Amino acid sequence: MPTAKVYHVIKFGNPSAIFPQDFKCVAQVEQKSASPGEAFEKTNHIDHFWWENPEVTKVVKGAVRSTSVGDVVVIDDLLYLCCPVGWEVLPQKY
Question: What is the gyration radius of the CA atoms in the chain, in angstroms?
């Protein structure tokens, strides 16, 4: 099972954010696939707080927003930027 690390941009809506310095890791997600979409779904408030999902380990204290456009998901050292439609694989590895 792949593990995804979810990073939220610190200043929400910052289009010039640079990874990793402008981000904080908020969760680790045990997944069935290597899809960033699976991590996105599991770190969004739908019917309950996302950190209540059994596959998710929240790694920060306090309330945290849902994963959104501009955030990054890392799976197998590949960086995926959440875009308005779909995902962009960033050129660097982490």
Answer: 12
Residues 6 or more apart in contact with residue 2 via CB below 8 angstroms: 31, 33, 34, 75, 76
pLDDT tens-digit profile, the chain (94 residues): 899 999 999 999 888 999 999 999 999 999 999 999 999 999 999 999 999 999 999 999 998 999 999 999 999 999 999 999 999 999 876 5
- In angstroms, the first-to-last Cα distance of the chain is 19
Beta bridge partners of 23: 9
- Report field, pTM of the whole predicted structure over 0.90: yes
Q: Any idea where the domains of the chain sit in the sequence?
A: 3-93
